[in-house]
Write the structure tokens for this entry.
Amino acid sequence: MSSGGARPLAPWRWLGVPMLQVMAVTFLFALPMRFWGLSLPEPVFAMPLAFAWAVIRPSMLAPLAIMITGVFLDFLWGSPTGFWAVCLLLPYGIVLGARSILAGQGRAVMWAWYAASTALAIGAGYLFTMLDTQNAPNPASVGWQFLATVVLYPFADRLIDRFEDADVRFR
Amino acid sequence: MSLRDNPLGELRVPLTWTAGIVFIVVLIASVAILLSDRREAFDTDASGNPRTMTDKVMAPVGDALSTPGRLTGQGVDGVRGYFFAVSENRRLRAELENMRQWRDVAIALRDTNERYRTILGLKTDPPIPMATARIVTDSRGPFANSRLANAGSEKGIKPGNPVMSENGLVGRIVGVTEGVSRVLLLTDPASRTPVMIDRTNARAILTGDGGPNPKLEYLRGQDPVKSGDLVLTSGDGGVLPRGLPVGVAVKGLDGRWRVVLASDKAAVDFVRILLFEDFTQVADTRKLLHTTPPPPTPGASTLPPPAPAAPAPTTSPAAGSTATTPGPAAGAPATPQPKVNPPAQPAAKTTTPQPKAATPPAKTATPQPKAAATPPAKAPATPAVKTPAPKAPAPKAATPPAGAAP
């Protein structure tokens, strides 16, 4: 075995670059553009990150990166500060705890887990909004955002494929 | 080399535990930040509020990034206008013909209103100054609906100012810094707007829920609203001016009354921010608290008589009742009379054409009497907005002749 396999994974490769990419794409989707009278959907692009980072390996920097991404979403979208940080950290923690169960699962099962973690994040957002504003968000709008986020699983899958075996200590 | 022989394998458990501890700490910190944040307590001090600082950074970036899309849209509109110029011209001619009748009605109503105001001595609101801004970012999720506009405190914008597109009310300002302001949309779950149904004057609170059509809550009375009723701001509470167009009432699939927003008719790219200040902003409350009350009006029936000397230690019941119970003779002169203008002023207006005379000629498109009150309320940008016409007399004055009704 070569000594290069034991080299730890550089955080900027699997945390920093995807985080900046997600911020950029989220910002682009927040531009006021309409196509044929319809505005763009608003998926939570940070959700694939939260899922993939938990699957790839336990990390001390990943929760911080999720928190920074969540606060960025709050500032961009105008939600209360910390709202998306909490909503993203909750599924991250669940998936991190179930990491041993997820190991070796097929793509369909992983997609189902991703959908469940997305439901947890958006459900937490629904609850926090209801408590904060004394007003239940529109279920149809919540459903649309859930669907728009669930279809983003291929990005999480790509990230997992790329970095899951990159650190020999967590194979 | 087997896994058992891997010397780094022993690091697995400590790293996992440390990552778990860091996760819990970060989660607790995030919850603390969330609990300490209150969106309604926006601080307008740019140096003290990270949110306004990030808005200040994001606004020019969003402005620059949205420029290609905006230019493309303008180009597409130009091409479309070129190819559809004939049909557009035909449509505009018909609309202009209809608007001419409305103009005559509006002139007659304005004249009538001026006379009423003169007679009643009404104090009308001053015209509202405006600032124009361009929307540079737009969030449309179910939990927060807000936009950034590229105009801020340098144009006199303050939190609470209403924001309108060319079609209707969009929302209100909730955060301002130099060069940028954040608009809370009517659809945001935290948005509450006092509105009224134009047809019945019934009041309601327009409550956003993250969907495209906010709810009408706290509707009172029997059948206060019907599908298609025009919804306007009521001005209750003084937060928003009265009469801004909001949308049209519809029955939602969930059985609730909702509003199809007028601002959704077209893309909201440019907005007008009304620099409206309600009474609480205009009045200097500190000064009001320290103002000495005016001296009592002599002979006023509702006031105790002025004490010429030190109060007697013992007061007879008769004296007390005299002081608090006004006699009819004493009350009469102190009753405030409405300020009546000299009769010469209304008399001078006798040559003004009566509303009936100014009614547009009988045409099939003659507006209904109720709808005649709509155009003044729809023009918040003009000074006429701030002087909404009295609802009762206006439609009657504009009622076209019976034969003219379609």
In short: The mean pLDDT of chain A is 88. The longest strand of chain A covers residues 34-35. The radius of gyration of chain A is 17 Å.
